[in-house]
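Q: I'm teaching a short session on how sequence maps to structure, and I want students to see two examples side by side rather than one. Could you give me a first protein with its sequence written out and its structure tokens following it? Keep the formatting plain so it prints cleanly on a handout.
A: Of course. Example one:
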Amino acid sequence: FSPTAPSVWKGGGVPVTVTVNRVDGYAGPVQVKLENLPAGFEAPPTFIEAGQQSTAFALYAGPMAGNPPPMTPPLKLVARATIDGKEIVREATGGLPKVVEPGDLVTATAAGEVTIRPGGEARLKVSIERRNGFKGRVPIEVKGLPHGVRVLDIGLNGILITERDTEREVAIYAEPWVTPMEHPFVVLSKREGKNTDHAARSVLLRVQK
């Protein structure tokens, strides 16, 4: 979690990656939540799975979001874990998020949640809006999927929306051993040349038997 103040596209999102440093052999799950979200901003609570080091979610600013007043408390990432029956809490403080006008891309998903069974597949339609005269191809990335869940049909250049298209269906597969859970993930498009990320709202993955 970066302590710098994030710039968030109005009506869009940016990916936030959270990494934990595990000490003393603790390998269990870690609950993480972004607190002090100003009005108009949203980010889902999530968790880093047992044995894993990181996850990702979207920090999203609604179309009516504005820059928070100067006295607004800064963003705070709170991590919680239960170790030997005792709750351990760690916090990381960030800056105030800043709203910026939409860039060359706006990303959206057709659904806010996806349900998948272990050993099965699910599909999610991703759409983009090109802005400011941008006409190029657009790579799509999916971050924050739990261990054992992955995107299929990734070509040599990744998942691409060609210059002629504005949407792409993404296939998601869960290994047979994945346990039931609910876990948010983030879909984003990348503006090549400017190296900017344009995330959609977080999507909730439901793994159900």
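Q: Perfect. Now a second example for contrast.
A: Example two:
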Amino acid sequence: DDGRVIPALHSAFSRAKSKNEKQWVASTLLRLGDSTREYSDFLIGAAKEAIEDQTPTFIDYDQDGHSVKGRFSAKFEAWCQANGKDPRSVGALQFGTYPEDVLVLARAQDPRARETLRQGLQSPNPLVVGYAVQGLGRLGDTSAISLISKAAEGLPPDARSAISMNLPWYSSLDATLLMERLTRSEERRV
């Protein structure tokens, strides 16, 4: 209710030096009801790189779909070698930067991000997919649940937990049933 908050955040956005700082300020402004397109465009633009990146995931899975710690996937290593990229740098993007870019967009709860978040369901990165699910849940996009189910089918069993743990953002029976189905398949593997 303090009329100084929004102008202070506008000023903080223009003064921010890092992308991350700008993202969190923009997300806060949108959550507080400021509908300035600049903030939405900034967040969507930052998340698009993560969402459109089709680099194979760095996570290695065994034949049962369990993640293998301390080892890059063969597809990922081959992609890095073929494209002259450092696996550790690309892995850091996939594990840290990209998921956070999608998470900040998800937390903004901006309806203009709906299509971008739906595209995120097609990412080979399970963390990006999980935060796209959270964003769609925060928007109440129940029509995306069938797309989320399809995305889960395309992921190894261990990667599906990124989806199931973000489904509670929905308040729908379909999301609950999908979460239970994914959780049961995870329990069967243990």
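Q: What should students look for in example two?
A: Point them to this: Strands lie at 59-61, 67-72. Also worth mentioning: The first strand starts at residue 59 and ends at 61.
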